[in-house]
Amino acid sequence: MRVSQGSCGNLGTADTFISSIGCNLIVEIEALTKIYESKLRVVAVDGVDLALKQGEIFGLLGPNGAGKTTTISIATTRALPTGGTVRIAGIDVVKHPAHARRLIGVVPQFNTLDRSLTVYENLYFHCRYFGFGHSPARARSLELLEQFLLSERRDTYPAQLSGGLGQRVQIARAIAHRPTVLFLDEPSAGLDPQSRMAMWTAVEALRTEGITVLLTTHYMEEADQLADRLAIIDYGRVLALGSPKMLKATLGAQAIFDVKLKSQDGVDAVLATLRRRDDVSSAEATADGMRVLSPNMAALLPALAEATAGLGMRDLKITEPSLETVFIQLTGRDLRE
Amino acid sequence: MPLGSGLFFSAFFGLFLRDARVLTRELIPFLLRVGMQPLLFLFVFTFVLPRMAGSNPLASGAKFGEIILPGLMAVAIMFSGIAAVALPLSSEFGITREIDDRVMCPLPLWAVALEKVCFSAIQSLAAALLVIPMARYIPAVPVRANVSSWILLAVVLVLSSLLAGSLGLLIGSTVNPKQIGLVFSILVVPITFLGCVYYPWAWLSNIRWLQVGVLFNPIVYMSEGLRGAVTPEIQHMPWWASLPALVVFLGILGWLGLRGFLRRVLS
After folding, report:
1. Closest to B102 (Cβ–Cβ): which among A99, A102, A129?
2. Residues of A in contact with B24 (CB under 8 A)
């Protein structure tokens, strides 16, 4: 699963920062494990290898309890691994946590805005924590308020913000010190659909700033919409890794064609013809037509229209291959279980 | 890879500024919190009681005022230290996890904890110094601080304030917010009442078990150390006993507090 590091494999620490950028690897997670030893021994993360390229949006997709949040907690220096390493821009987060924190921004799963400070002050003091002087901190905070359409809320306290607005402030705060990598842990948990769309837009916009984003989610649509690449994770292991498109293609996710016909006469002959095609994995008759499953939606569509021409097509519904079906195939369980 | 000392100090200063900003919003509650107890205490015991015929002999005259002045300073330090660290920390660690953003700043975690303790120490110092004018103007007979050694006063005040902040750190990081009120009843009230606040330690000699028992109470050394510095004419522990004890307690509570803090922050 590990992305090849090519010539960048064995480097001294001093050169690693520059070389990692040369290699475009910004986050390197190797053989990461985390075992909680209490009454019950829980293996939260079980040998995860991941490598993130600079500027990409990377998704960790899995059900609750899959190990996503633990992986992020370790990468963001808030938990210690049992084994393995995480390097951010070449810096080992366990050995140099304070240093690594300069390079990362975090949007945690829950709203952790400072309740004693206004929206503006949340941003301003965050900048001060990262060594900004008064004027740069002020300028950066005002700039972010504008960028995230929060200027009108500058003197509002976090407790008075809606979930969506609070999340926007959290994202603004997380990128205020211009981190190299932004970690978003379940960014749309608890958001209404409209706020979720707004949050997606905000994350998409980060592409232009060149920030690498690692986000966890158990929403298929979110992973599909946002992520350039994603890892499907369950029981602390990476089950599959690739672009959403690639995962859907290689893991055999099927597009579903539901065809409604005027007449069922001769449908069996048509189904037999379709089944002989390489790009049809199944073709069955339904009550008022037929259902065809195919990995190749584009090629089958004209052929399907032609084959059913004599039967009189009334309606056609196509369901595109989805990550949900990929996930169920991989894990045997539903994402929202 | 070492962290630049410039960034270290500016990040530390940033945390300090944040706490200062929050404190300015809560200046009146802060003053009430630290001032109410010594105010009422001085009022009742050194103003009201001396005016009552046949009142408690201990509460009559200037001497009692001089006995309790350093004691009240110690209590002010302790209350303000715990209130400034334990109360906010307990809720910030609780449901809201507000501490997260400060914990994620580019400082080692011990420095984040140290900032909390230092900031509370400044509040404790202010609280202690506030008692001095109160003692002068509230009692029927003014109680004047008679500073024998400014250096001793400074050292005792600083050690006591840091100690109170460390205890606050320990309480804040180990007690959940629901039980924080309970901590005041079962810990803070007893250690102040048994902290040689209202009587010098030497006067406990007739109750030997208590005199020995209270030696495990850090407030005893605060009160006695301050007695030596502010009202040296009242019997008190020598500085070579109170100062090392304060250092030892600071070390123990500081270590336990830091350990509790790290446990809460790092899983």
Report:
1. A129
2. none
Interchain CB distance below 8 Å, B266 and A101 = no
Question: Do the domain assignments include residue A46?
Answer: yes
Q: Domain residues for A21?
A: 6-113+161-249
Q: Which of B3, B21, B266 sits opposite A79 (nearest CB)?
A: B266
**For A55-68, how does the pLDDT look when each residue is reduced to its tens digit (9 = 90+)?**
899 999 888 888 88
Contacts of B88 in chain A (CB under 8 A): 116
Give ipTM to 2 decimals: 0.88
Q: Which strands sit side by side in the sheet containing A181-185, from one edge to the other?
A: A104-107, A181-185, A212-217, A57-61, A229-234, A237-242
B55 touches chain A (CB under 8 A): no
- For residue A11, is pLDDT > 50? no
Q: Looking at the partner chain, which of B3, B10, B25 has a beta carbon nearest the beta carbon of A98?
A: B3
A179 and A245 both lie in a single domain: yes
Instruction: State the CATH number of the domain containing residue A308.
Output: 3.30.70.920
Domain boundaries, chain B: 5-265
Query: Is the Cβ pair A78, B103 closer than 8 Å?
Result: yes
pLDDT above 90 covers what percent of chain B? 39
Q: Which of A249, A267, A291 is the last residue of a domain?
A: A249
Through-space distance between the first and last CA atoms of chain B, rounded to whole angstroms: 23
A39 and A52 within one domain: yes
Residues A225 and A315 in one domain: no
List, for residues A195-240, the tens digit of each pLDDT value: 888 888 888 888 888 899 999 988 877 888 889 998 988 889 998 8
In a domain, A126, yes or no: no
Closest chain B C-alpha to A105 CA, distance in angstroms: 9
What are the CB-based long-range contacts (under 8 Å, 24+) for A130-136?
A130/A102, A130/A176, A130/A177, A130/B11, A130/B14, A130/B105, A130/B106, A131/B6, A131/B7, A131/B10, A131/B11, A131/B14, A131/B106, A132/A177, A132/B10, A133/B10
Share of chain A above pLDDT 70, in %: 88
Task: Work out the mean pLDDT of chain A and round it to a whole number.
Answer: 83
- Given a contact cutoff of 8 angstroms between Cβ atoms, the answer to whether A110 and A187 are in contact is no
Question: How many distinct structural domains can be found in chain A?
Answer: 2
In a domain, residue A329? The reply is no
The reported pLDDT for the residue numbered A6 is: 39
In this structure, are A57 and A76 located in the same domain?
Answer: yes
Taking the Cβ of residue B20 and every Cβ of chain A, the question of whether any pair is shorter than 8 Å is answered with no
